[in-house]
Write a structure and sequence with these properties.
This protein is an alpha+beta fold and about 280 residues long. It contains seven helices and 13 strands. The longest helix has 17 residues. It binds zinc ion.
Length: about 280
């Protein structure tokens, strides 16, 4: 699933490609993908261009020049791909934006766990309001990490595994199992350790590791394990720099011990039994 660095890579490329181009026609090929709408899909984009494209957590927010917004989540296998020819159609095409200069933006999703929602100018987007802190923001550090892994809505969450907490979108937005596993390796903390057992002195390194691994991945255009592609349909290059994720059975790059994979809350977590306690 695309996580923060992958979605941010897509957003940056989309800005270069799509902002300011007039949309001649928008097509919704998979109606089930549109979970919330204000107008019929094509009417929503009529006589518009993309004015702004932003990211919040793993969501992409396309703002139109009339103030309306399209919210997109890529789910497991979603991607936005630039095409200069509208006659080439992928069979997994979900929505398509044809520009008046002939180019088009294809939204493709093989497994269709993604979603689209449309909003008028002043409508709030509830799902964005429920998201936690952005790990690449200046506000994210050891003390904000301590605050978010201690309580949520006044309820203690410290009995849950730290790996599960890092991936809770309501606490920290944009982290999935790739970067949760990688950050915990760098911080020397086992994924299964309860949040209450993470020591105060370990938090600065954990916060810094999470930030750093995402920034490094962003520089490489994200991590492609299987389906993630950039807007130019090329894979991200960070996979070869992963230290634990997807490396079960292989030797730890630091100590040579075999990397283990476990299931935590239904998700895979990878760790080195020697380097992480
Ligand atoms: Zn190791």
């Amino acid at each position: 699933m695309p996580e923060l660095p992958e979605v941010e890579t897509i957003v940056r490329q989309l800005r270069n490609y799509a902002i300011g181009r007039r949309i001649d026609k928008a097509e919704l090929l998979r109606e089930s993908m549109l979970k919330r709408s204000t107008l019929p899909f094509d009417d929503f984009f009529r006589n518009c261009s993309f004015a702004k494209i932003d990211r919040r957590g793993k969501y992409i927010i396309f703002s139109l020049d009339n103030g309306s917004r399209l919210l997109a989540h890529l789910g497991m296998t979603g991607k936005f791909v630039v095409s200069e020819n509208e006659n080439t159609a992928d069979k997994h095409l979900c929505s398509r934006y044809i520009f008046d200069d002939g180019g088009c933006l294809d939204h493709i999703d093989i497994r269709r766990f993604g979603r689209l929602e449309t909003y008028r100018e002043n409508e709030s987007i509830p799902v964005l309001e429920r998201l936690g802190i952005e790990p690449l923001s200046d506000d994210f550090d050891a003390s904000s990490l301590k605050a978010v892994i201690s309580t949520r809505n006044g309820k203690t969450v410290r009995t849950r595994a730290i790996h599960t907490l890092l991936m809770d979108q309501r606490l920290i937005a944009g982290v999935g199992n790739i970067y949760a596993s990688e950050a915990l390796f760098r911080a020397g903390i086992r994924p299964v350790r309860k949040a209450s057992r993470v020591k105060k002195k370990e938090l600065p390194l954990l916060a810094e590791s999470l930030k750093k691994v995402m920034e490094e991945s962003l520089e490489e255009g994200g991590t492609t394990v299987s389906d993630y592609r950039r807007v130019d349909d090329k894979p991200g290059n960070f996979k070869e720099f992963l230290r634990v994720y997807g490396r079960a059975g292989e030797p730890c790059r630091k100590c040579g011990t075999e990397i283990k994979r476990i299931r935590l809350n239904g998700r895979s977590a990878f760790f080195c039994p020697e380097c992480q306690r």
